[in-house]
Amino acid sequence: MCFLTKCPYVPPHEFDLDFPHLMLRYRAVEAKKNGVARADRELAETDRNGALATKLAPLANWTTDRAHKTARNVLEKVAGLHHEAVLPKYSGKTLEALAKETPVEVNRAAPGFGRKAVIYATCFGEYNNPAVGLAARAVLAKNGVETKIVHPHCCGMPLLEQGLIGEVAASAKKVAAAFEPFIDEGYDVIALVPSCALMLKFEWPLIVTDDAKVKKLAQSTFDLSEYVVGVARKEGMAEGLAPIEGGVAFHVSCHSRAQNIGQKGAELLRLVPQADVQVIERCSGHGGAWGYKTQNFTTALKVGKPVARSAAGAGKRYLVSECPLSGPHIEQGVERLGGEEPKPELLTHPIELLARAYGLV
C-alpha cells in the first residue's frame, strides 16, 4: 500500500522507487542463495494440499480445529502454525464438482443477459469454501450472466511470498493457457479472491513479460466485486433484491485496495435496498500465511486490533471481508476483545449477502 498511497518517490518521480517489488527481489535472491524453509515450502503447495485435504476433509478439519489441542500442538511443532490461529476448513467436495452437480438456469429476462464469464475458482474457493463461488454463480445467473467454473492451477501468491519467481511464472503460463480459449470465445474472467485477481491483473505481466496469453488474461480479468458492480452500472441489476436487516461491517482487504479499483465490495453491498454499510479500510494484520506463524500470531492480532475494535463497535449484524484469511482473523480479534454485545456473523465475501438478498441461498 505504500506504493499506491504513501510513497512520494514512485513513478513518474525520478527515483522510480517500487519498494514492494524491491522487497520481492530481495526475497528471490535469498530463496536462490539459501533456499526456502521446508515448512514454508510445503505450505505453499496449495493445490496439492487442497486436493489431498478435500479427500480427507473430516480428518483435516479435525486436525486443524483449535479444540483439539494435542493435534494443534503437533501441527505447531511440525509446520510452525500457532496453535491458537484459526486455520481454513476444507470442503468435502471441490467447487468445480459441486458446480457440475448443481447446474443453474440463466435469467434471460435480466438486463445483463448476453454476458459470459468464466469464474476462476482459486485454491480457497476450490478446496476450502465453495460457498463463495456458488453464491457468485447464482447471483450472476440471476443477472443473466452465463458462467463456467474452472481451476487450472494456483495463482502462485504463496510462492511469490517466498520469492520463488520461476514457479510463479510457470503457474502464470499454465493458467493463462487454460483460460485463453474462454477469452477467445468472449468470456470475461472473474477471480473469487482479491489476492488472486491482483496476481492475474498486475503481478503476472511483470514477471512473465513475453507471453501474449498472460497479457490477454490480465486484460480480461475482473475482481468478483468489480465485475458485479460493473453489471449494475452498465446494464442494471435484475429485480428481486430485498433488504437485509442488521447492517454490515465491511473490511476492505489490502489486495482489494492494491488493485486500485475503489471500494467495489462496499459498492456491491450498497446494491442491497436500504443497505447499512460501515467501511473499515485498514490492514487486518494477517499478511497472508504470515499471521498464522508461531512467531507472528500475537503481533498479527495486535496490528489488527483497531480493525477488530471498529468491527465490534459498529454494532452490525454481519462482518464481511473480501479476503478469506482476514475475515476469521478479525473475528478472532473481536472475540478477544470480550464484552457482552452480540458478535457479528462472519461471511466470507459480500457476494453471499447479495445472494441472500435475492433469496438464492
Radius of gyration, in angstroms, nearest whole number: 20 Å
Q: Helix content range of the residues, please?
A: 40-55%
Please write the string of helix (H) and strand (E) elements. HHHHHHHEHHEHHEHHEHEHHEHHEHEH
Average per-residue pLDDT, rounded, comes to 95
Outline type: globular
Q: Report the strand count.
A: 8
User: How can the largest sheet be summarized?
Assistant: 4 strands, parallel
| Regions with little confidence, pLDDT below 50 for 5+ residues | none
Q: Strand share of the residues? A: 5-15%
Question: In terms of topology, how is this protein built?
Answer:
Blueprint: H1 2-6, H2 19-34, H3 38-43, H4 46-55, H5 57-64, H6 69-79, H7 95-101, E1 116-120, H8 122-128, H9 130-142, E2 146-150, H10 157-161, H11 165-184, E3 188-191, H12 194-207, H13 212-220, E4 221-223, H14 224-234, E5 248-251, H15 254-257, H16 264-269, E6 277-280, H17 297-303, H18 305-313, E7 318-321, H19 326-337, E8 345-347, H20 350-357
Parallel strand pairs: 1-2, 1-3, 3-4, 5-6, 5-7, 7-8
Helix pairs in contact: 4-5, 4-8, 7-9, 8-9, 9-20, 11-13, 12-13, 18-19
What does this molecule look like?
This protein has 361 residues and is an alpha/beta fold. 52% of the residues lie in helices and 9% in strands. The chain contains 20 helices and eight strands. It has helices at residues 2-6, 19-34, 38-43, 46-55, 57-64, 69-79, 95-101, 122-128, 130-142, 157-161, 165-184, 194-207, 212-220, 224-234, 254-257, 264-269, 297-303, 305-313, 326-337, 350-357; strands at 116-120, 146-150, 188-191, 221-223, 248-251, 277-280, 318-321, 345-347. The strands form two sheets. It has a four-stranded parallel sheet, with helices on both faces. It has a four-stranded parallel sheet with strand order 6-5-7-8, with helices on both faces. The relative contact order is 0.12. The mean pLDDT is 95.
